[in-house]
Amino acid sequence: MSAQQVYGRRLLINLVDELALSEPERIVYSIAASQDIAQGFRHVTARNFANAVNRTAWWLKSELGQGISFPSIGFIGPYCDFRYILLVLGCVKAGYKALIPSPRNTVEATVAVLERANCSIWVTPKERPKGLPDLLAAHDMRVLEIAELDALLCEKAVAPYPYTKSFQEAASDPFLVLHTSGSTGLPKPIVWKNSLLSTLDATRLLPASESSGRPPWTTILETGDTFYCAFPLHHGAGLLMNIIVRIFYNTTNTLGPVGVLPNIDFIESLLDHTDTRLWSMIPALVDEIGETPKVLAKFAKAKFIIASGGPVTHGSANKAAAVVRICNVTGTTENLFQGSLLVEPEDWIYFAFHPRAGFKFKPLDGGVYEHWAVRNDEDMPLHQGIFHTFPDDREINLKDLYERHPTKPDLWLYRGRIDDMLVMSTGEKIRPLAMEAVINTHPAISACLIVGTGHAMPALVVELAAPLPPSNAERQALVDSILQKVHDANSIAPKEAAIFREYIWFAKPEKPFARTDKNTVKRRETLILYEEEIRDWYRHIEEDGSAAVDIDLTSVDTIAQGIHRLLISVQVPGAQGLQWDDNFLLAGVDSLLAATIANSLRFILANSKDGNQDTRPSLTTRFIYNNPSILKLAVAFHNRLQDPTESLSHAKDSENQQVQELLSKYAVGLPETASNAATVAEYTGDRTVVLTGSTGSLGSYMLDSIMRRCPRVKKVYCLNRSADARERQTESSQQRGLVLDWEAHQVEFLHSDLSKPFFGLDADVYHALLAETTDIIHNQWPVNFNWDISSFEPSIAGVRHLIDFALASEHNASLSYVSTVAVAHNLPSPGAGPEVLRHVPLPVVDGYVTSKHISEMLLEQATGRTGLRASICRLGQIAGPVGVDYRQGMWPKQEWFPTIVTSSRYLGLLPAEMGPIRMVDWIPVDVAAAVVVDVAGLPNPEALSSGSTVPALSERSASNPNGKVSPPVYHVSSPTAIEWTALAPVVAKRLGDSVRMVSWGEWMEALRRSSRNVPGAKGVLQNPALKLLDFLESLSQGAEWPRLAVDRALEKTQLPDSRRTVKEFRTQASLNLRAFSQALRRSGTREDPASPSPSPLDWFSLVELYSMRFLTEERDKLMTISGIAKVLRRDLRISYLAGLWADRIATGLWWSNVGSPLQGPKITRASRWSRAAWDGPVQFPLATPEGSLKYRTDS
User: Which residues form the Thioester reductase (TE) domain (predicted)?
Assistant: First the structure.
């Protein structure tokens, strides 16, 4: 039988004896003769090695007899003790199994493994490990003393110990017992069977991957290769490389001095005195090699570094990869290095897996995938090792997280384990390993841990390699030095994972971090060890929340210098390079950073003898937003110190002046007519659409609506600010269950900046857009109610550039602008707010609404002067979807309603009324998106089948009172509403007895107090309405928001049945509590420790809040389910997606018996619907014996 035929069916113990007979003088191990590598090595031949194994087996039999049923024998020896290898193989021959616990384990952890493995025998060297007495006191065992290595390796021959089993007979026999790392709990024993080990041998049989051509990683192993493994022999990787790989692949393995842990100096000594070709390294050593040029240069003669055991730091290891090829493999104690492929040198950081390993990657939130092994009975015996360890399982969650390569879908980047994830009190999930790996490269750091589960912000606990410096100045200098690495780590992490300077602290020298055998930190054990310190530290930092920066208040210049240092301290993106006139909001200052800056200014002022303390209350986040540059903030701060009242009045005048200046600035140069305005009055051909802001919630549904409903659109250009828009769009749409086939629908993503000439695109790309574009939907706009008007200037500039683009386009492109209904608030009108342009001056409530109003006025001027084909869609409050897969629909938690509910739970108070917001009129996001697409005039099959056409220019415009053409306005809002006073009691009940209802004024006062009671980051993140405090204050001073007319928007929807007259569609004040509970559970507004965070709201559940009544002309006639759907479609009167919603309700309901006159009918829905409350006389269907439905009147 050829060797290839028996690969995967060979027993290691037989191969030891076979090599001793066939090549007795082959060197199989080289053991360092002393701690000085220069003193040379003791070479162990194949004959000598087999003899030592036999001697160990005979010794065991003499002490214990031949083993029956493979009793366990425990052993802990010195680091790199060759007797580990001899004992493991000797046990196999004598009928035992060696159990190798980690010497780093606690007594409790080792006892847990011993008990589960039924271990009652312990082997010890003459010099007993120091923890052995405590272990024996906790777990009684018989103790044997193994001979010294010189005696075991004696050249005197002993009789071969007989081992006669075939592979088939021994496949299920145990070879060795290890245990899990214990990083997330007490370790559990893992038995390596012969059949598991044979899967590594069978890797030789695997062909290269058919899809990529990548070979198995073991192809780098060649007979006679000199091999050094830095993992200890009590670790699975050390045993795997020094026993399993060495014997199956005939390498010559080097072992370092006994008791000496490998470091960079030791590695350099090995390089100097050996010809080692293959290196198996722990992650920390790979990183250190990359950062040590002198040592790295010596690796040029090596074949490979095999990196395993944890994540390496890309920046450091990438330097090593430039000199020596890195083979990045991943494995587990239960599975070995199963399935790993050798990837291309430039992709060394990624993993690839052979299809026969049976690995599947299941998507989770945030673009990460969970690693699973799925059993395939055909491949399992030779290529799915994990199912030898767990033979009863069909599918196993490995709990590792990966991220897919952006362009090579079969490459995977390791992103940690589910167990490592931090779940913050804000609901954000943080994966800390990559950040920790970057920070750990600092030479002063031994290890670090990012902590913070259950808190608002993450913190960094640093274990130093040397004692903490004694003086405060030296400690601050050390923090500054570490902060540079922290900045690097923050740059590769999502912003919610960013670590601030004041969130760095040092571990206690007397409490070293718990470690695994790979020298990585045992997260769970270390967190338990530091549980009290973490709790106390968070209590202190969250009660303070200030930044440690002093500011000289004597002049504008000194204040500006101090503010610049403050921005650097709180890690404003790019703060180091900010000029004093730069707008730091555009650099990335969000509400959290603004609150931190404002709180820091208040703290600085409170601790200053020079400042006017009366100024402190006015230093709010709005103050930061209104002065968004270092110089503006310094001037405003200085003015406040001099005279708080005068500076406030001046700020108001300045805001009003800015509005006029911005409108005048961007209206300058508008032509009196477009050169090609008359060339295209009506389109009948295919369309090319430019869509801005597609990656957000509304934009994703707009793109989906175009792709699903508008087959006449041949091309969509998505213009977005982010360079990775395609990846962001894929993630956004995938999370929402939307269309993802960009190529099939000719969707192209362009990185653009609308505020720049040519949108920041190459001139060729811009001119190609001019030639192709027929329609523009402008949805991109920063949503921030705290920004001042000047911060929105780039967005206003973008509107002007889009106007210029549309006028210059070859097809006289239409421009649909997405605005906000807030522009129409406070309009004098006797009835519902009309769908007209606003000519009444808008009170400067916030920069967001004002910037939208300026843009509307700019479009009006452009339309009147040039004949621009423009329209304005004012959007109301948008909630989650009802169509497509509504279960994936989310209501973004930053919206005002989830924000107020979350803060109400935090405050223990809920407003019984909401200032000027009396009516709640949410509209589903997919319905809103469809209406915007319809208003934009994009043809769809429903419009074409009804005989309608896309409106021509004359139909799309209207004359204003001055006789000029102006863009039509559409209010995209729900045609029905419910009063907040009716909704509030149900929300309060769901929030719990600890929440009471109060007036709007009382609630606002409580919110103001909370900003003072819990300042800083925690105050903002756990009480998110603080971010909207200034905006909510402005609401308190405004008039009641009117109901808005929506007739024009409804008429523009392009389904024939949506044009019918609405007879009645009412929302009841009496709410379905059970359904609302479902929505609140999704919003995280219940007191559930397992779900502490506010997650988004599901619109479908909110729809179920309302008990609906339908009065139709179909009195006293039998109706089918489809008939009810028809009525619902007609009465909803909101386009295509609303019809889908109607179908869902109709087909999901069945009607049982009639309820009491007071309660109304009982309505049951199989999965979601509960009892509905009705008011007044109503037509409702009854169940008949034939199963049909009949309406009946009741009171």
Answer: 691-931
